[in-house]
């Protein structure tokens, strides 16, 4: 006759699962009690994780905020705008070479694709460093752009006071200009300076309009610029051979965007006599492609900086391990009593492991809030910094990584506690 099963052996799988859950819950409550009993030590233990996660979140939020701000500017071009610019490979830039799009390129594009929508040329007569303009005793270095009348409609920026340059200004080479709000302030011009004159490169230009404000980006004012008629820009520029034209095409039929892009590339490659294996010396991009390019660069910077700062999480984990080892030493008698009362090894192991994970996770959660606050403070103290943006993946990754760090660096203290001999632990002074 078979011997009756022990009650524990007769327990069904569901019962065993409930027992395990009860044990885990009990260990969790013991770990929380231990953390609550030593609040100052718990704060100090998780401080390294707080600083590490806060650094990661602050860096990611600021870079993502900048990325969003730049992309929003590109999106202002509209989804149906093609941008044609010169492009110089990095190795040629190192040699001091620079490719340019010239007037003949613009005329070629206009002749072949004039029926697809507005074709808007523009260029900087004094290059990317701008020109020195003056009004009375005041002078200022500002960006200067020569453009046609349709430029404002394509980039969707309009005058706040007065008017933009017109086709009539361009045909008659009228010496007029439109300035940004920052130029008006720098030159200490009145609130409405329409009709007043500024001096640029020996030319006297009459102000006919003030552009609407766009604010700062990365501490750089987007309102510190002036626009002159295209013909005036050609007269003012000191060296005609340095002219580098940017061409915007406002395509009316959006479905033809890809086809037009390929045709324009083919036309320019043929005009520039580029061989099949030779790189383009120009770029033809849509607003979405410009956005993707910027997004790709900022994402790469985010991952690299986030990864570098994330290494500090390991330092925080080492701090948790050290404090936990000290805690195990101080609680040796407590552990001995638990073992003498029948607490198995795995229960002691689980309790200390959970304590390390909870401390690390608390540090992670606190670090997320601290990083968000640091990002907000950055926008208050750094002029032109856009509002921070914290992507969900950075929060999830920071919390997951901090939990893993707690688990990893809690193993050694937990193993030390669970391996203690009960008698030796009870005799420990």
Describe the structure.
The chain is α+β, with helices and mostly antiparallel strands. Helices cover 57% and strands 16% of the residues. The chain has helices spanning 7-10, 13-37, 39-75, 90-94, 103-113, 151-155, 167-171, 181-186, 230-236, 257-271, 287-330, 332-340, 345-381, 392-418, 422-427; strands at residues 81-86, 117-123, 131-135, 138-147, 159-162, 176-179, 197-200, 203-211, 216-217, 220-221, 225-229, 246-251, 282-286. Strand 3 (131-135) and strand 4 (138-147) form a beta hairpin. The longest helix is centred in the C-terminal third of the chain and has 44 residues, at 287-330. It starts with 6 loop residues before the first helix and ends with a helix. This is ABC transporter permease. It is a multi-pass membrane protein. It is found in: Cell membrane. The chain crosses the membrane at residues 43-63, 301-326, 347-373, 393-412.
């Amino acid at each position: 006759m078979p011997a009756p099963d022990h009650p524990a052996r007769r327990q069904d799988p569901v019962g065993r699962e409930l027992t395990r859950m009860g044990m885990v819950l009990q260990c969790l409550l013991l770990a929380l009690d231990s953390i609550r009993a030593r609040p100052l030590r718990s704060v100090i233990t998780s401080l390294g994780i707080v600083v590490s996660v806060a650094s990661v979140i602050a860096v990611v939020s600021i870079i993502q905020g900048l990325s969003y701000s730049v992309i929003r500017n590109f999106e202002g071009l509209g989804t149906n705008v093609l941008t044609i610019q010169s492009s110089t490979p990095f190795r040629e830039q190192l040699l001091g070479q620079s490719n340019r799009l010239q007037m003949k390129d613009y005329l070629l594009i206009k002749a072949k694709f004039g029926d697809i929508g507005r074709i808007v040329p523009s260029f900087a007569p004094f290059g990317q460093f701008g020109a020195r303009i003056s009004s009375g005793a005041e002078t200022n270095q500002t960006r200067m752009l020569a453009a046609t009348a349709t430029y404002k409609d394509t980039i969707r920026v309009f005058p706040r006071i007065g008017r933009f340059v017109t086709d009539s200004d361009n045909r008659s080479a009228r010496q007029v200009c439109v300035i940004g709000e920052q130029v008006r302030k720098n030159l200490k011009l009145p609130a409405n300076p329409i009709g007043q004159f500024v001096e640029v490169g020996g030319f006297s230009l009459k102000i006919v309009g003030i552009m609407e404000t766009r604010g700062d980006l990365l501490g750089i004012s987007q309102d510190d610029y002036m626009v002159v008629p295209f013909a005036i820009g050609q007269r003012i520029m000191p060296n005609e051979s340095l002219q580098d034209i940017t061409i915007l095409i406002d395509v009316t039929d959006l479905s033809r965007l890809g086809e037009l892009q390929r045709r324009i590339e083919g036309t320019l490659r043929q005009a520039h006599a580029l061989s099949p294996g030779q790189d383009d010396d120009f770029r033809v991009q849509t607003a979405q492609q410009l956005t993707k390019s910027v997004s790709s660069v900022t994402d790469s910077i985010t991952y690299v900086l986030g990864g570098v700062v994330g290494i500090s999480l390991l330092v925080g984990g080492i701090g948790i391990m050290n404090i936990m080892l000290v805690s195990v030493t101080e609680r040796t008698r407590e552990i001995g009593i638990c073992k003498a009362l029948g607490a198995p090894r795995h229960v002691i192991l689980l309790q200390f492991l959970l304590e390390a994970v909870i401390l690390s996770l608390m540090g992670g959660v606190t670090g997320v809030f601290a990083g968000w606050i640091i990002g907000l403070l950055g926008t208050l103290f750094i002029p032109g910094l856009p509002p921070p943006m914290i992507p969900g993946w950075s929060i999830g990754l920071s919390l997951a990584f901090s939990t893993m760090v707690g688990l990893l660096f809690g193993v050694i203290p937990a193993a030390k506690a669970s391996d203690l001999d009960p008698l030796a632990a009870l005799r420990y002074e």
